[in-house]
Structures are given as C-alpha cells and as structure tokens.
Design brief:
The chain has 460 residues and is mainly alpha-helical. The chain has 23 helices and 6 strands. The strands form 2 sheets. Strands 1-2-3 form a 3-stranded mixed sheet. β1, α13 and β2 form a beta-alpha-beta unit. It is elongated and about 95 Å long.
Length: 460
C-alpha cells in the first residue's frame, strides 16, 4: 500500500480519500488476488466513498470488487452509486442480498433500487421482503416515477392532536422504530388528517403539561402526493424547507420528503436541462460507448440536415462560382458537425468535472471512450455525407474528400472535447465558462484544414 493510501485509511471518510493512488493500489491488489488487503483498504471508507471507488474503475474489476465486498456492503452505498454503475452492481447481487439492503433503507430509497431491477428479479426481491415492507414499497412504486409519492419516505413521527408535550416525549423515548433523522413532528387528528407540525427543538424547550396543539404551526406547507418532483423542488426552494409532509386529496398524512432527496431532484433537473442544451439525451460518463453513440447519433443527424440546408443556400450560386462552388458549399458542413459533436463531449465532461465524477483516476478511460464514440459517429456520417455529396455533385473525389474530413474532424472534436475541460481544470480555470471558446477554434481550424488540405491533394 502506498503512503497516500495508508494516509487515506487513517483519515476521516471523505470524498478526498478516493485518490488515484488508492484506486491504483486496490486495482493492484485485485490483480494479485490480495483480498484481505482490498477489504482493509476499503474498510475505512464511508458508504459514499465506497460508491465513488466503484465508479472509478471499469466494469470487470468493479464486478470483482463487488464479489469481494458484497457481504459487507453498506446499503447506503447502493443509493450513492450512479444509476448505470448501480445497475451493474445489482447484477452481481443475489435477490436476498438486495432485499436485505432494502430493509435497512428508507422506503423511497428502497423503492428506487427495486424499481431499477428487471421485472423478474424485482418480483424475486419483493418476495424476499417481509409482508409489511413489501406492501409499503409496492405502494410507493404505484406512484408515477417523478411524483412526490416516489420521493416521500414513510418513516416519520406523527402524534395525535390530543397529546401533551410530555406524552410526545415519552412516546419518542419508548418507540423503537423512529427514523434516524427527525426535524419536525407532525400533528394529526383522529382520521390522520394533517393539522400542523412542531419543530423538534421547540418541543424540547416546552413544559411537559402543554398541549402539543398549542405549540404546533398550523400553517405549514404540504405537498400533494401526485405533485411532480419539479413542483416539490420549487416548494423547498421558495420556503427554505428541511422537510415537508405529503398528503392525499383529503389531507391525510402519507409521508414526508426530506431536503436531501430534493437536492437530488434539483441536480437531476439541472442535468436534464444541461443535456438538452448540449444535444445529448443524458449525461453519464459510465454509460457504454455503444449506447452513447446511438443516443448522440440522432442529434447529430438533425444537425446534418440543418448543415445541408445552409449549404444548399450557397449552392444556388454554383453556376457563377463553377467548380470551386463545391468546396464553398460543403465547407460549413465539416466545421458545423465537428463543433456540435465537440459540444456534446464538452457538455458531458464539464458536468462530470463539476460533480467530481471525472477524476485523474478515470480520465484516460473517459478520453478513450469519447474517441471511440467520435470515430464511430465520424465513420457513419462520412458514409452519409459522402453519398449525398456524390449524388449532388456527381464527383466521387469530392465525396471522398468530405468523407475523410468528416472522420478527422469528429475525432478531433472528441479529443478536444475531453482534453480542453481537463486541461482548464488542471490550470484552475472554470471549464464551464471557457471550454466552448477553445473547442470552436479547434473544430473550425481542424475542419477547414482537413477539408481544404485533402481537397488540394485529391482534387488538384
């Protein structure tokens, strides 16, 4: 074990512990079959630290690590994992192991994990759960995916409106099933309709004989169980909430949403907006290259149509410009496709850097994946644009020129889209602000140089 890894084992469990040195040490232990050393190195990490470790390695060593660590894997680690990585981890766990983990999690987290499973395995996991837990999770899964019903957890503290502060305190002391984190206690009537809430600190400062209704806040906000998660995020943001009750149409208390779940929602919504801005269907550096290629292909295909539209306008002057018009008409296509492909890569890279998912430990793997994606899309669009050019200008040499330039520029875009944000991050310059400026320069220069340089060799 290196000094860095040894220091990591002694330090408090933080994300900074998952250093490239630690990852390298664990992979070396894995190559030599040193299982005890792996367990020792991982034992000092928190659940989120273990999650980040699993995200830093490739699929094959990840599966091996899960096989070694699964008996001691903290259920919270599953929640912290990226969705793509979690799917791979769950494939290496038995239904009984997943069910055992679900029993230790809040209902919303347990439902999220089980919902990710294939239908057959989902039924197997549910069958392993006690009847009460299974019923609660099935009720949660019955709500729409992006609704408050999916976000809420059933573990909360609700007390009758007829109790005194002393009775509430005695109940909380004697109860064995209270949630770990309690910020507010909810007051309900005999039909479980929400009447108000009491902050935990206020209740502890109040004398025991005082009725709980005298110190409750009756004007607290509540969220309908069918509300969309964006509405939930707005309520928390606008009213600076830590927790908020969820009610049905008759205002009966069903659950509570905590701020940590809303932070995830805000992150998801921001990620979706960023993905749309960059022309990608999703932002996930752990997604397989083939799936990423497919998802980006259609965005680039749309862009190709707009590029040909722009070129057709210039092409209306081909009689006047004669032979050279072919180069003038087609030149914007190469630069435009490279710029948009590079923007897709930069969007993913900048977001991954901002979230801390792209690090020195997995940077090379990310660069290689993006080069594969760029080359694959470059080859496919070379075939498309080459065929269209041949039909348009009836000259196979021009078709070959733009096809080759397309491959070169999409490869350059992929390389620039990864190295520019990483380089700016290393220079302590915000890659979100500066990346596109350098990217546009690279794709334009490489695109025009490749196209016109090849034209000079092939056509002249």
């Amino acid at each position: 074990m290196t000094d860095a890894a040894r220091d990591t084992a002694d330090a408090p469990a933080t994300l900074d512990e998952v250093t490239p040195e630690l990852v390298a040490d664990i992979l070396e232990h894995l190559d030599h079959g040193r299982v005890d050393d792996i367990r020792r190195a991982v034992s000092a990490l928190s659940p989120i630290g273990v999650a980040w470790l699993l995200e830093q390695v490739a699929a094959e060593p990840r599966a091996q690590l899960v096989g070694i660590l699964k008996d001691d894997l903290d259920p919270e680690t599953l929640i912290e994992l990226d969705a793509e990585v979690r799917d791979e981890v769950l494939e290496n766990l038995e239904p009984k192991d997943i069910a055992a983990a679900a029993q230790e999690l809040n209902t919303d987290d347990a439902a999220e994990i089980i919902d990710d499973l294939p239908e057959v395995e989902r039924r197997e996991v549910l069958s392993e759960l006690p009847a009460a837990d299974r019923a609660v999770i099935e009720q949660t899964l019955a709500y729409p995916e992006d609704s408050a019903g999916r976000l809420m957890q059933r573990d909360l503290v609700s007390v009758p409106d007829t109790w005194t502060v002393g009775e509430v305190i005695d109940y909380c002391r004697d109860a064995t099933d209270l949630p770990d984190d309690v910020y507010d206690l909810f007051v309900v009537d005999g039909e479980r309709r929400l009447r108000g809430s009491v902050a935990l600190g206020r209740m502890l400062r109040t004398k025991r004989p005082v009725p709980v209704v005298d110190i409750m806040d009756p004007d607290i906000p509540s969220i309908p169980v069918t509300a969309h998660q964006e509405e939930v995020a707005h309520v928390f943001r606008d009213q600076n909430l830590v927790s908020c009750p969820v009610v049905d149409d008759d205002r009966r208390l069903l659950g509570v949403i905590m701020v940590d779940d809303v932070v995830d929602v805000i992150d998801e919504e921001a990620e979706a907006d960023l993905a749309h801005m960059g022309g990608v269907s999703g932002i996930d550096i752990h997604e397989p290259a083939a799936r990423t290629t497919r998802s980006r292909f259609w965005w680039l295909f749309v862009n190709l149509g707009t590029a040909f539209l722009a070129s057709s306008v210039i092409g209306r002057f081909e009689d006047e410009l004669q032979k050279v018009v072919a180069l003038a008409v087609l030149m914007p296509i190469v630069a435009s496709m490279g710029g948009n492909a590079g923007t897709q890569t930069v969007t993913v890279a900048v977001r991954a850097l901002a979230m801390g998912e792209l690090t020195a430990a997995n940077a090379l793997r990310f660069v290689i994946k993006e080069i594969i994606v760029g080359g694959a899309n470059g080859f496919m669009f070379a075939l498309i644009v080459g065929a269209v050019t041949w039909l348009w200008f009836h000259d196979p040499r021009i078709a070959l020129t733009i096809a080759a330039a397309m491959v070169i520029n999409l490869l350059a875009a992929a390389l620039a889209g990864t190295l520019i944000p990483l380089g700016l991050q290393w220079l302590k310059i915000d890659p979100a602000v500066s990346s596109t400026v350098f990217l546009t320069t690279v794709t334009d220069v490489v695109g025009f140089l490749a196209f016109l340089g090849l034209a000079a060799v092939i056509l002249l």
